[in-house]
Design goal:
This protein has a two-stranded antiparallel sheet with strand order 1-2. The protein has one domain. By secondary structure, it is mainly α. The relative contact order is 0.16.
Length: 160
């Protein structure tokens, strides 16, 4: 994967996509877990968004490592990098839960639904709320640490 695109570091370009996709996938997973009509219409779109978020997370972290290697050592950058490395542990569960939810939904809507589908939907709905909230909070933590790393000292710059 390239380190720069048109002279700009790749990390700030793709990080914005991930910052939108992760909470959208997390909130979408919660929505399809709690609202059966949305599950029927949007479920597979949410699964796709969650898969894309899970796939882009390591690329985003890797591009951040490459960018950090070019910058002077800074504790704020290290904090952002440590938190970013953990993001995959939040995005993959959202994807797995969204996929599991849709597979259970498919089984529940089959000609002869298995008896376990109602209980499975309840369990997956509970998991989706937990994973969705956790992923959204963690993406905020990562982004906030990144913003602090970028903007630390910005208020001390001379105004033109």
């Amino acid at each position: 994967m390239p380190e720069f695109v048109d002279g700009l570091p790749l990390h700030p370009l793709i990080v914005h996509l991930v910052v939108i996709l992760i909470p959208a996938a997390a909130l979408g997973t919660i929505m399809i877990a709690l609202w059966p009509a949305a599950r029927a219409r949007l479920g597979w779109i949410v699964v796709g968004a969650a898969a894309l978020a899970a796939l882009l997370t390591p690329f985003t972290a890797n591009s951040g490592k490459k960018l950090a290697a070019r910058l002077p050592e800074q504790e704020l950058i290290n904090t952002h990098e440590r938190l970013g490395d953990l993001m995959i542990y939040f995005t993959v569960p959202v994807f797995v839960i969204a996929l599991g939810l849709m597979l259970v939904h498919r089984a529940a809507n089959s000609a002869q639904p298995p008896s376990w589908t109602k209980a499975a939907l309840i369990v997956v709905a509970i998991l989706s709320v937990g994973a969705g909230v956790a992923a959204t909070v963690h993406v905020y933590r990562v982004g906030e640490a990144g913003a602090r790393a970028v903007w630390d000292g910005f208020d001390k710059l001379p105004v033109r």
